[in-house]
Write a structure and sequence with these properties.
By secondary structure, the chain is mainly β. Helix content is 10%, strand content 50%. It has one domain. The longest helix has 10 residues. The two termini are 26 Å apart.
């Protein structure tokens, strides 16, 4: 096997297949299956960096993530007065092996112990690790339509997604870094709704979008300090960075409104979440 810088070159074929069947006039049944594969990014494996008072550590031993996804759905066309549209209902099921997620912890050098380092807080931070097997399944419903309101061309869309993102066989080291007592994957919403309405008159268009996300059940425990007896990092993180260990305001139900192309966000994510997501580089 060829190696570059002591790392094996990986090659994994992926397969995708789908079927679409016209069950009746304007009624379509579909099914699909696909495999997925994600190799660790350069940032996840080799980059050591800081953002604010927090640190991100590299993980040269991070393994590739594999998985599969499937979907079955039905689409139905309709016409009501001057309005025409489609209703789409689909169920989905995805499973991943060796899923990669950022975890907070104490990451000492491989040849060191806690007693051998002068300042342990320098080794507190985030690292991308393999959290094991995961499953994400759920239901997606959407209605899209086009017609006229008071003689003005209009388009609308409303969609709802319910999903169950869970860790299948997490070990204690993974669960202690999850803020809640459930096995729900961190930073996932179980329910979301989107509504979009746009009007077009001659060369002018005006519209708005409303997005809703439900309460985020699990985040990194360090941001909530909900398990101080099992995981002391929340208190240590607060003492070392000055950032409160109960930074969980962003978990609440979120409503975003997009009007005239200007985004108004009632509750924002903290910068730390977007920063860690950017390192994944899908």
């Amino acid at each position: 096997m060829n190696r570059v810088d002591d790392y094996a070159l990986e090659k994994k074929p992926v397969m995708r297949a789908g079927l679409n069947y016209e069950l009746h006039k304007a009624t379509f049944l579909r099914a699909s299956f696909g495999q997925g594969y994600r190799y660790p990014s350069i940032a996840e494996r080799f980059v050591s960096t800081t953002f604010g008072a927090s640190r991100v550590f590299p993980n040269p031993g991070l393994q590739s993530e594999t998985g599969w996804s499937s979907e079955i759905g039905i689409k139905q066309g309709f016409k009501v007065g001057s309005w025409m549209g489609v209703i789409d209902i689909a169920g989905f099921w995805m499973e991943y092996n060796k899923m990669m997620e950022f975890n907070f912890g104490l990451f000492l050098p491989a040849d060191s112990t806690l007693a051998q380092v002068s300042n342990p807080s320098e080794y507190l931070g985030f690292k991308s690790i393999n959290v094991g097997s995961t499953r994400i399944n759920g239901l997606d419903i959407s209605i899209m339509a086009q017609g006229k309101i008071l003689g003005v061309e209009s388009r609308s869309m409303i969609g709802y997604t319910s999903m169950n993102p869970i860790l299948l066989r997490p070990d204690s080291a993974i669960l202690v870094n999850v803020s809640g007592n459930s096995k729900t994957l961190k930073y996932r919403y179980r329910h979301s709704v989107k509504f979009d309405l746009e009007h077009t008159y001659k060369r002018f268009s005006i519209g708005n979008t409303v997005l809703y996300n439900s309460f985020m059940q699990n985040i990194d425990e360090v941001f909530q300090n909900s398990k101080p007896n099992e995981n002391p990092f929340g208190v240590v993180f607060q003492l070392g960075t000055g950032i409160p260990s109960t930074v969980d305001e962003f978990r609440k139900s979120i409503i975003r409104v997009l009007l005239f192309g200007i985004s108004v966000c009632l509750v924002n994510y903290p910068k730390i979440v977007s920063f860690l997501s950017s390192l994944k580089m899908y």
